[in-house]
Structures are given as C-alpha cells and as structure tokens.
C-alpha cells in the first residue's frame, strides 16, 4: 500500500525528481516543494503520513526547526530527514527535534523508500552504517584543530575581528585607522583590547595565534 507523502527540499529539482520516483513506486505524493523553510506550514495544511525533508546543512542552527513545528502541530506525521552525512550531533539533533529517520542524500531510491515505510510504521529509520559512523566518531572523535579558533573568534566583536585581520596583514596603527575610517587613538584601543582578549602580549603573538588556530580563515577576507 502506498504512503501519502510530502517531499520538501531547498532544491526544487531534487524535490520533484524524488517525488516522481516515489510516484512510480506507487506512493501518493501530495506535493513536491521548495524551499524547505516552508515545510512545516505545508505539512500542517496537507497532513501527509510521512514528510521527506531535505536539508543541505544539518549542522546549521535552526536546521530542524521545521521538524519541531511539524511534530508540535501534527504529531502523527512522521518526518524523515534527507541530507548529507552529518556529525553525530547532527543525527542526534534531527531525532531530538522529532524526526523518525535520517537518510543520506545520495541513498538509492530503494533505501529512501525503506526509510519511509519504517517511519510510517513508527520505527526509527536510520541506516546501520550511519549509526556505526556516528558511534565511531563519538568513541574516537576526530581532532578539531579549529575549535580554539572558533572559541577565540566568538570572544571578539566584529570590529575587533577586522582589527585582528589587519594586524595579521602587517598593518600598523596608522594604516588600521585609515582603513577603518577611525582615529589612530581608537585603532590603538581596539588593538589593545584584541591583545587582552587573546591573552597575548604583542601584535606578532596575536597574528601567530590567529594563524595557528585557524581564526583568520573563519574571519574571512576584508572587503
């Protein structure tokens, strides 16, 4: 027996292609829509049995907000997330939001269909290899050399980040002030605050720390 489905993805072509493939397999697709941010309202109004929700960035904040809303308004609807292989936290976040399954975006249609059927039956639909990978990473976490850079970046204001980038590029106080359109005394104050927040004693140390931790890569180039 076919499943009443709603397919939503940020990429309309992908949503429509997936919908067509599922229709050929005997399922009733109520809609194939984009972008995914409107998924919750569409699901609430159409009330499918299963919503296949595509996401390109499962690690982004708020990626699974539509799932939370769907489960709050239509708890009987099973949501299967279709996306890239995330970190263990990404898989956990999907299920914490209320998803019934997580399927790789490059899964064959047979695998997607199996996940849909399991979700409709009230079962958790996650490929064993995804779970194995998640547990493997949790037990043996990969080194994250840029964690410190992210932490340091969050300590700085946007203006201080710009000052740090300019310091790393070798600009002196006068050039920093001219480039940012501020007084040299203000530029000097910003530099001192950056040094203090980073816990270093010189501009050279600040530049070296920023380069070593990947902070400069996260900050991006100056406009």
From TrEMBL:
Keywords per UniProt: DNA-binding, Transcription, Transcription regulation
Any matching Pfam family: GerE
Residue stretches making up the HTH luxR-type domain: 149-214
Listed InterPro entries: CheY-like_superfamily, Sig_transdc_resp-reg_C-effctor, Sig_transdc_resp-reg_receiver, Tscrpt_reg_LuxR_C
Key word Metal-binding present: no
Boundaries of every Response regulatory domain copy: 4-120
Name of the molecule in the record: LuxR C-terminal-related transcriptional regulator
Source organism (scientific name): Streptomyces marokkonensis
């Amino acid at each position: 027996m076919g499943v009443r489905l709603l397919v939503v993805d940020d990429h309309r072509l992908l949503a429509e292609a997936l919908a067509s493939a599922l229709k050929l397999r005997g399922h009733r697709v109520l809609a194939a829509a984009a972008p995914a941010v409107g998924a919750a309202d569409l699901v609430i109004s159409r009330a499918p049995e299963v919503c296949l929700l595509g996401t390109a960035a499962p690690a982004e904040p708020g990626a699974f907000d539509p799932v939370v809303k769907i489960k709050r308004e239509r708890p009987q609807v099973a949501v299967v997330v279709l996306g890239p292989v995330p970190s263990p936290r990404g898989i956990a976040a999907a299920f914490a939001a209320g998803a019934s399954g997580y399927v790789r975006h490059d899964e064959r249609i047979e695998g997607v269909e199996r996940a849909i059927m399991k979700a409709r039956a009230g079962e958790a639909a996650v490929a064993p290899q995804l779970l194995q990978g998640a547990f493997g990473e949790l037990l043996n976490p990969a080194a994250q050399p840029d964690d410190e850079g992210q932490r340091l970046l969050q300590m700085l204001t946007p203006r201080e980040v710009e000052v740090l980038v300019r310091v790393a590029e070798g600009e002196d106080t006068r050039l920093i002030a001219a480039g940012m359109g501020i007084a040299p005394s203000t530029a000097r104050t910003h530099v001192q605050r950056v040094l203090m927040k980073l816990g270093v004693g010189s501009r050279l140390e600040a530049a070296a720390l920023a380069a070593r931790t990947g902070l400069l890569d996260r900050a991006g180039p100056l406009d």
